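Duplicate of earlier report; AraC-like DNA-binding protein/quercetin dioxygenase-like cupin family protein input re-posted below.
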Amino acid sequence: MNLPPINIGNIDIKLAFGGFVLNVLYVKFGYFHTSMREHSHSYGSYELHYIPSGQGILVAEGKRYPLTPGTLFMTGPNVAHEQIPDHSDPMAEYCVFLEVLPGDSQPAASKYSTNKENLLSELLVNTPFWIGLDNENMMALFEMLADELSAKRIGFHHMATNILEMIITRMVRQYTKHSSSLLDVPVKTLDDSRMLTIENCFLNEYHSITLGQLADRLGLSTRQTERTVQKQYGVSFKDKKQQSRMGAAAQLLTTTDMTISAIAAEIGFATLEQFSHSFKQYHGMTATQYRSRRK
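Output:
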């Protein structure tokens, strides 16, 4: 299957969606050859995933779901999730990452929406997790989006915006056709570049990032940064970093043959003793016990 890649780069795309505005932070395409370790998104952040080919497993909210061609799923605020590919048939994925902004961010002409449109947007923000099989021909939309972004013909920004609106709309329409987890989620906002910086630091630099370093990158004081992390995740910087470290440790224990000492060093602990104490305190068992039970 020859799948077209998508990357919006630095293009600013905001979608009027019922009573909200969706700030599209990135659209990406790629293949999973290794697992994406367990992580979660901040308040107001949603990630749409579409699997056009390949096989794998999604672990979300403590449950395992098979990923097959045509699978769609949305992961919203504080939904811990992990993607595990089938190495004999690695899955491809289109991913749309967006931030929900309040409706007063819309231009005046865009603020008029029907009750059905408002229901659609409320269904999106009140559903932190949903998974099902596509029955709205989403692949055709991703192909159209890829064509517009690669060719960059006159009006491509307008076209890309319209196609992304259709992608989100067709996604949320399908919530009502399958069972879904409907929970109220607070919708908060943060400057998009700062939000991505925070997300990426906890996902990729959990082993070494400090509060001071993150504050410097955000252009904020350490106190402001601490408040920002608390606002976005509901926990302190220290607790969020520990959560990321322990998630990475759990993945390494179950997917590699690395020694426990090597894992401790890999995720940023100075000594094995410090790691062992933290791991047992967090997971309720030793690293050795965790590895033997999960493998």
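The beta strands are 13-17, 20-31, 36-39, 45-51, 56-60, 63-67, 71-75, 81-85, 92-102, 129-133.

Merging into the original ticket.
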